[in-house]
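Here we describe the complex-level prediction in full. Unlike the single-chain runs in Section 2.1, the two entities below were treated as one system.
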Amino acid sequence: EPEVTQTPSHQVTQMGQEVILRCVPISNHLYFYWYRQILGQKVEFLVSFYNNEISEKSEIFDDQFSVERPDGSNFTLKIRSTKLEDSAMYFCASAGTSWAEKLFFGSGTQLSVL
Amino acid sequence: GQQVMQIPQYQHVQEGEDFTTYCNSSTTLSNIQWYKQRPGGHPVFLIQLVKSGEVKKQKRLTFQFGEAKKNSSLHITATQTTDVGTYFCAGLNYGQNFVFGPGTRLSVLP
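The structure predicted for the assembly as a whole is:
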């Protein structure tokens, strides 16, 4: 089965530093998402992206967050100035041809902010 | 905003026992999905329900969508150790993103 790939698998950074989390969605998918999960807690929606623009974003996705699809294959999440509370597992997901299709999740990037 | 709740938060069962998790939404849903996350893994899609009152089965798993499209359940018959993990429901309320419930963590004792 096709896979969503995420890099790196682990990222450790100092508070206040910028991080970029990278994702390669499934090649023919059109809808892209970032979710995050703090250890042992729920999967929280951050942002959805379609047709090269943000479709929806949650309250968590403030001005410190941005997303890009720079080259038609990669989908990145940037956190400009990380905070301790940004520590979490960040999952990228993609879906095929509509919002209502199943989500394919990547294996995640564990972000630790020190 | 839309809220999705699940009960129980944790469930410990003996292998061979049945297990049920319940999902409730504060708003009417257009559809609902169920995902399984193994320890240390990522959510993996199990099923999607769209119609009011819909029931779907996958081997030992039975999924149900309520008549009012505000609740759903997942029932596992005769649990096995491979069923261990956290089961999440995720509801779509005619918007553009799925809101996940907090999940039910299932432990199966051999």
